[in-house]
Write a structure and sequence with these properties.
The protein has 398 residues and is an alpha/beta fold. It is built from eleven helices and 19 strands. Strands 1, 13, 14, 15, 16, 17, 18 and 19 form an eight-stranded mixed β-sheet that branches.
Amino acid sequence: MITGQFPIARFETLETPFYYYDMAVLTDTLRAVNKERSEVEGPMAPFAVHYAVKACSTPAVLQTIAQAGLGADCVSGGEVRAAIEAGFNADKIVFAGVAKSDREIRYALEQGIFCFNVESMEELEVISSLASEMGVRARVCLRVNPNINAHTHDKITTGLSENKFGIPMRFLNEAVALCYRLPAIDFLGLHFHIGSQITDMTPFVHLAERINELVAEVEQMTCKDPDGKAVQPVVRHINVGGGLGILYEHPNHFPIPDFKAYFDTWRSHLHLRADQQVHCELGRSIVAQCGNLITRVLYVKKGENKQFAIVDAGMNDLIRPAMYGAFHRVENITHPEKEEQLYDIVGPVCESSDVFVENYRIAAVQRGDLLAMRSAGAYGETMASQYNLRRLPGHVIS
């Protein structure tokens, strides 16, 4: 499969910058996810995949993902609402986040979501209290901080002991015991997430080994229910999080991530029983390659030592390069046939960090040319802002 075909004539009639979503790429990606997650070996049931809504919340994208049968991974009440409005079944929605407000918790309970991924014992007590007031029970998985290095960018690493996420391993038994003591909590299992843009499966292997240890430890406990009766915990749901990365350098020839390697890693290394369900929360790997930021060249400026292609998209439209030093392939889609020249491709925002790529070879550009910043479907439009009072970018669906 080769991507990278753009409806240039249509683009010329639109005000830039805007996000362009190639729904054929998204559909092919979802088909690949559903195929690989359902390749059952041994006692393992198909994976329950919850799409990470924070990656891209454009309504048409959400609706397409919901229609493919995936669940939703949400980190705010607003995301829970967007998922439900897009057609996701409430019983396939998980709600994570370190700072869920009372209003958000109540809304999620009203909707009957599948479970809360709980990140502290304080949160457990609040959820139980609110559920009791409402006369319902809250299903929870405990998010554990496994202290595993994902070997990715430090701003998207989430599983180290110094990160704010999850319950430290040494408090896990105490948190499980609290689940059984609280009157309105149903303990389902354990949740993990170690980071994002992971392309080497080794960190996932390490996580699987840690999960095996922690599940065995939890199931050896004896807890007491609210009436003081002894209860043996059972971990029936294991949520391994997301984190699968993509190849930003080669979106045209490798638009679909290696889902087979990802799912096979869990199949090979998790010690599972027939009564256990594995969940994962894929975001970037589902939507990144279907999205492109389309921008227009405003000026070609000769510097003393450099040549600048100044475009009308800024760091407010696509913040990943400025925030993470992230790379996005840039293509001249108006004149792809021209001989390449070297540019710094920069935006109009009044910040020195408003640079998309430096010393970059691209087909020679001129004022008015359209450029495509590739693999921008994840954490592109969803992170856009109006900094410098610039308008938010629009979006176009193929």
